[in-house]
Design goal:
Blueprint: H1 2-22, E1 31-32, H2 49-57, H3 64-71, E2 74-80, E3 85-91, H4 96-106, E4 111-112, E5 119-123, E6 127-133, E7 141-147, H5 148-154, H6 166-172, H7 178-189, E8 210-212
Parallel strand pairs: 1-8
Antiparallel strand pairs: 2-3, 2-8, 3-7, 4-5, 5-6, 6-7
Length: 224
């Protein structure tokens, strides 16, 4: 009888564990990857501030993608099961204002958002560049290079409140009613992407799961 009792207890524990992993109540369901951690360890190394700014100012890059890739280390990649991608770069040498002004000065964006306390966005023909002060790591600025399709399919419109008007967001995303439709979807599902978090504290997009890269780092001055 003791053996049967032990088997019964083990079975109950297994069922509970399976429910926690696969159940609908898991707030991280649909997200996997290396960014679900409590530490990044050593962050990528960089050139000093003046060298970064000088390289950006004198860059011959033809696109904002090349400009960012050539001057900032890659921190992470977020990808949906639809193939849309957002790449996350970083710096500890520059402030949010310096990053935004340097990028916009080198390659003029179509739109520049209002600057909030901890974030600003630059919009180019096929990409949003979303610059944020990290909430998790002091003095780290994340630079998210997201395709407009990634923004359209996964971002919560509320993230851009105070940065862009609904009318402007609709126009940039080629829609007459993206803001309202996406707001309704996010309100009903409660799990739209709300910007990058270094340790996995972003939400899944309703039109597909999001996952972080299995490896991090890369780019100029990589120290990992």
């Amino acid at each position: 009888m003791r053996e049967y009792g032990g088997i019964f207890v083990v079975g109950i524990i297994a069922i509970v564990l399976l429910f926690n992993v696969f159940g609908n109540g898991n707030p991280m369901r649909g997200i996997s990857g290396s960014n679900i951690e409590d530490t990044y360890g050593e962050l990528p190394s960089e050139p000093d501030r003046s060298e970064i700014l000088n390289k950006i100012e004198n860059s011959e890059a033809d696109s904002v993608e090349d400009l960012i890739q050539q001057n900032f280390p890659l921190l992470d990649t977020v990808q949906s099961d639809q193939g849309t991608t957002s790449r996350i770069y970083m710096t500890r040498e520059l402030t949010l204002t310096e990053v935004a002004d340097a990028l916009a000065g080198a390659i003029t964006p179509e739109e520049i958002s209002e600057r909030q306390e901890d974030k600003q966005a630059l919009v180019y023909p096929d990409h949003f560049v979303i610059i944020q002060e990290s909430e998790e790591e002091p003095d780290v600025i994340t630079i998210e290079l997201a395709s407009d399709q990634f923004v359209r399919n996964h971002y919560s419109p509320g993230f851009f409140n105070g940065m862009f008007t609904a009318l402007l967001l609709n126009r940039m995303l080629g829609s007459n009613d993206w803001y309202d439709r996406r707001s309704n979807t996010c309100r009903q599902s409660g799990n739209c992407y709300g910007g990058y978090g270094m340790y996995g504290n972003y939400n899944t997009g309703t039109s597909g799961s999001l996952r972080g890269s299995s490896t991090r780092g890369g780019g100029p001055g990589t120290g990992k």
